[in-house]
């Protein structure tokens, strides 16, 4: 990894429901090439979670300022699983523990609902920062999707976490390559 990050001081992280007024900011973040290279195709939600969960998309705030979003999409009602997407829109805030804190808060909120017992996600295999973040909050490698399915030849990992499972960062042999 490169130079140490400049100290921005402590700042509380919270999540809150996305409002329509947040959409232009999200679009701005998604238009930034530095951000976009890590995002997959925009999700089209087949199953609306509204009514089953308190919220489907949350904004991530740091010291009261919106800096990113995370969402749950495509609820599979039989499996009670949904797909997560997360994005911190300001690259200077990456790698400071904000992502894992936001995911923890979302999982805590969602755990109260029986509608979702498993959260999964897709991540580019070269997105080491995201993978480390997901592992830190208990996601485990479930498979590798064919690179051709992404259209640009980059391999994609499928990771998942059961909500009952305690957060345990040890023993992810597949990702560590030590098993
Ligand atoms: C993915 C994302 C949400 C993670 O949030 P974050 O706040 O940056 O992540 P965290 O700080 O909680 O964890 C980052 C981990 O990666 C490490 N890391 C930081 N910069 C890194 C780099 N350039 N390369 C590799 N690892 C890096 C950190 O040390 C930390 O790991 P550790 O705790 O094991 O030391 C955020 O980086 C982001 O939005 N990125 C752009 C969009 C994106 O990639 N979205 C995910 C699509 S699947």
Briefly characterize the structure.
This protein has 179 residues and is of the alpha+beta class. 22% of the residues lie in helices and 28% in strands. Coenzyme A is lined by residues 1, 35, 38-39, 68, 86-88, 94-100, 123, 127-130, 132-133, 136.
Characterise this structure:
This protein is α+β, with helices and mostly antiparallel strands and 179 residues long. It has a single domain, classed as Aminopeptidase, CATH 3.40.630.30. It contains 5 helices and 7 strands. A 7-stranded mixed sheet has the order 1-2-3-4-5-7-6, with helices on one face. The longest helix has 14 residues. The chain starts with 12 loop residues before the first strand and ends with a helix. The structure holds coenzyme A. The site of coenzyme A (COA) has 23 residues, from strand 4, helix 3 and helix 4.
CATH topology: Aminopeptidase
The percentage helix is 10-25%
Average pLDDT, rounded to a whole number, is: 83
Kindly provide the name of the CATH class: Alpha Beta
- Strand line-up across the major sheet: 1-2-3-4-5-7-6
Count of domains: 1
Termini, distance in Å? 24 Å
Helical segment count: 5
Sequence of secondary-structure elements: EHHEEEHEHEEH
Structural class based on helices, strands and sheet pairing:
alpha+beta
Largest sheet: 7 strands, mixed
How many extended strands?
7
The CATH architecture would be: 3-Layer(aba) Sandwich
Percent strand: 25-35%
Q: What bound compounds does this protein have? A: coenzyme A
- Radius of gyration over C-alpha positions, nearest whole angstrom: 16 Å
CATH homologous superfamily descriptor: Gcn5-related N-acetyltransferase (GNAT)
Uncertain ranges: 44-50
Shape, please?
globular
